[in-house]
Design a protein that fits this description.
This protein is mainly α. The protein has helices at residues 2-40, 44-70, 78-92, 102-113, 118-146, 151-167, 172-200, 207-223, 233-243, 249-275, 280-288.
């Protein structure tokens, strides 16, 4: 009974958050609809760049997949690692299904088929999610406080963590450090994509601050339960933080560009692994039957 109550509570929180976000976004679009259309009315080259950015985003998701594997304790065997990465890619699409957290269930189901313990899989997912939220907030603070000067040190720190952990993969503490470095690298790529979209939208705001605001918005959309891929909440929080409560057409355009490229990138990431896995359709069917 407690589990059912908690489940309904999460769903109510998600519905309330989504409703508030949609209302805020509706006001933003209603007030600047014409201006947004002018910004979005770009040539083919601009949308070609957004399409290319979708491939970059899809590739960056591999970093999160490897981070999840690095967080597995005890460490996964070498023969299991690519299978686990493929599992991560296939289950990632489930975050777009109602409930928003079905991709975690997919990892649990698929990992159990590979002989891993439910406890180890759940702990790795929890650590990857926690590291993602922490890295997003940390990088956001650094970008807002130090601007471009923080990018190089953060990148060096992340790469050092990845290389240190990769040198001795069977060392549990170093493996966790490696996972944290991979997550931080992913967040840096996300920040770069936001800056690129801001340039395409003709935004005159400080690019590092915009990237920081988006990372916080990403974390907000990630941690609110019941939402599918942070839909609505991520965009609303970004516009609110970046504009100080007064939406601007260039910021709304950035949210549209980022939503298009991340959705397309998630689709490419899933499709790539589905093409290499004949059991992919079976996993999708199993995911759709999970009750969260």
């Amino acid at each position: 009974m407690q589990g059912a109550t908690r489940k309904w509570l999460f769903r109510i929180i998600g519905v309330v958050a989504l409703t508030a976000a949609v209302f805020y976004l509706w006001r933003a679009f209603a007030g600047y609809g014409v201006a947004i259309l002018e910004i979005a009315d770009q040539n083919v080259e601009v949308y070609g760049l957004i399409g290319g950015a979708a491939f970059v985003y899809a590739g960056s998701l591999l970093l999160l997949g490897w981070a999840w594997i690095a967080f597995l304790l005890p460490p996964a065997l070498p023969a299991q690692r690519f299978k686990l990465l493929r599992l991560y890619g296939l289950s990632s699409a489930a975050k777009y299904l109602p409930g928003g957290i079905l991709h975690f269930g997919g990892r649990q189901w698929g990992g159990a088929q590979l002989g891993l313990s439910q406890r180890s899989l759940a702990a790795a997912s929890f650590m990857e999610a926690g590291a993602s939220v922490f890295a997003a907030f940390l990088l956001a603070v650094l970008l807002c406080a130090g601007g471009y000067l923080t990018i190089a040190p953060a990148a060096a720190f992340a790469i050092a963590g990845v290389m240190l952990g990769g040198a001795r993969r069977h060392d549990a503490p170093l493996s966790v450090i490696r996972g944290a470095g991979l997550v931080l690298l992913f967040m840096m790529i996300m920040a770069g994509l936001v800056m690129g979209c801001a340039v395409l939208a003709g935004s005159e705001s400080a690019l590092p601050a915009l990237a920081g605001a988006y990372l916080i918005a990403w974390a907000a959309g990630f941690i609110i339960p019941g939402l599918s891929a942070g839909l609505g909440v991520r965009e609303a929080v970004f516009i609110f933080l970046a504009s100080g409560g007064e939406p601007a057409p260039d910021l709304v355009a950035v949210t549209l560009f980022m939503r298009v490229l991340t959705t397309a990138g998630d689709g490419l990431f899933f499709a790539g692994f589905l093409a290499f896995d004949r059991k992919g359709p079976r996993l999708v069917k199993e995911l759709s039957s999970i009750d969260c």
